[in-house]
Amino acid sequence: MMRLAWLTDLHLNFLEPPALARFVDQVASLSIDGVLLTGDISEAPDLRRYLQLLAAAWQIPIYFVLGNHDFYFGSIATVRQQVHELCAADPRLIWLTDRNAIPLSARTALLGHDGWADARLGDYERSYVQMNDHRLIAELSGHDKRSRWTILKQLGDEAAHSLVERLPPALEQFDQVHILTHVPPFHESCWYDGRLSDDQWLPHFICQAMGDVLLAAAARFPHRRLTVLCGHTHGRGAFRPRDNLLVFTGGAEYGRPEVQHLWEIA
Ligand SMILES: [Fe+2]
Ligand SMILES: [Fe+2]
How far apart are CA 35 and CA 27, in angstroms? Predict the structure, then answer.
């Protein structure tokens, strides 16, 4: 039996050193074999420092994906390259976007991709929501709304295509696959303040391309189980779009990181 703690949206850069130390110690005191971390760890300038700090403190594998905040004050290309190099140098840090399915047991594997809100659901053109992503991430800043729309769709498609290549082989081999991603893949998994998000927020809160891939895989492999862990909206909820597909969205509050759940993998 393997025990894994699921964490999401830690936003560690919002913590003063004593609160950071308390949280790191709290997780270190758990009797666990690894950590699942679904993005928004901090922001680009200090992301490496925090990942190194967590790996050194916990001394167990940290399976993670990145969230939109992890690219703030940086660029997607540069952060991804830095994280790739960091993980190559430290085997405790496992960036799932970069990896094929990882066996956790004879029956269960782990897979993931950062994902990206792809502005397909809701009403992007009329949305009044101004995401900081659009100012603070190099690839998204300096564009008008329409040209940024194209980039958001491309980022969603990139996540989906990556899963199209890696998910079916994993489902051929394993009874169940746990999939980590930052952005919820379905409207019904998009919780915010205890309710589902509206047309204004949906473009920025869902990766529809990823959802389509998950539905297709669940239909193609009806006897396999897919469990998705995501974050981003900071609203806790669960949604079962198919008998064999279950999506958990993690809750979060800035400055108060918490353990979402302890998973036992048989
Ligand atoms: Fe977040
Ligand atoms: Fe996020």
Answer: 9
Cα–ligand 2 centroid distance for 107 (angstroms)? 30
* pLDDT tens per residue, range 197-255: 788 889 999 999 999 999 999 999 999 999 999 999 999 999 999 999 999 999 999 99
Q: What is the maximum span of the chain, computed from C-alpha positions, in angstroms?
A: 51
Please say whether the beta carbons of 221 and 171 come within 8 A. Answer: yes
CA of 221 to the centre of ligand 1 (A): 31
* Mean pLDDT score across all residues of the chain: 96
Q: Between vectors from CA 180 to CA 175 and to CA 181, what angle results, nearest 5°?
A: 140
What is the distance in A from the centroid of ligand 2 to the CA of 1? 31
Report helix angle 17-28 to 44-58, nearest 10.
40
Q: Nearest CA to 67 among 110, 99, 38?
A: 38
CA of 234 to the centre of ligand 2 (A): 8
